[in-house]
Amino acid sequence: MKNKIICLLIVALSIVACTAPPKDKALTHEDKAEIKSEITAIVDSIATSANELRTDYFKKIYWNNEEFIGVDLTGAHSYDEYMKETDEMYASMKSINFVEDQLSIVVFDDKTVVALFEGKAKGESKDGVKMNLNNFNASMVFRNIDNQWKLVYTHESAEQEIMMPETDSTMVEESM
């Protein structure tokens, strides 16, 4: 009887050991490459959406949660504030063109990735103001939430150069 209990205990422990999820399973090179590919596609889609002056993709990929933090040239924002500011800015633009110089991606684990975008942008508002964003940098933290990559934190900075449109005396008088 004692041997049967020991055998059953060994079998039960073996089953638990075989079916338990591995703890801190290291990602393989292939796993990391696949995650980097997924994040690269997301960052490319963010840039494409920006260049097309569309914010619908931002609303899908940025984490709509009270813990989201977006830091840009005007300060730190919640998800709602960041989306409102982004919608307003893109609605005022005639064109914008982000160009990637370099994208670096660090995969920490299967749930956390940091992407560093370096590049530049040129744009023009609907009222003729032209801008250059030189040395544009975006640091982005992605989390895998419910099997979807979400941007949970972003920090953007740039050297911003603004060129006012040529004005004639009529335009100057109207603005006074």
From TrEMBL:
<feature type="signal peptide">
    <location>
        <begin position="1"/>
        <end position="19"/>
    </location>
</feature>
<dbReference type="InterPro" id="IPR037401">
    <property type="entry name" value="SnoaL-like"/>
</dbReference>
<dbReference type="Pfam" id="PF13474">
    <property type="entry name" value="SnoaL_3"/>
</dbReference>
<keyword id="KW-0732">Signal</keyword>
<protein>
    <recommendedName>
        <fullName>SnoaL-like domain-containing protein</fullName>
    </recommendedName>
</protein>
<feature type="domain" description="SnoaL-like">
    <location>
        <begin position="39"/>
        <end position="158"/>
    </location>
</feature>
<dbReference type="InterPro" id="IPR032710">
    <property type="entry name" value="NTF2-like_dom_sf"/>
</dbReference>
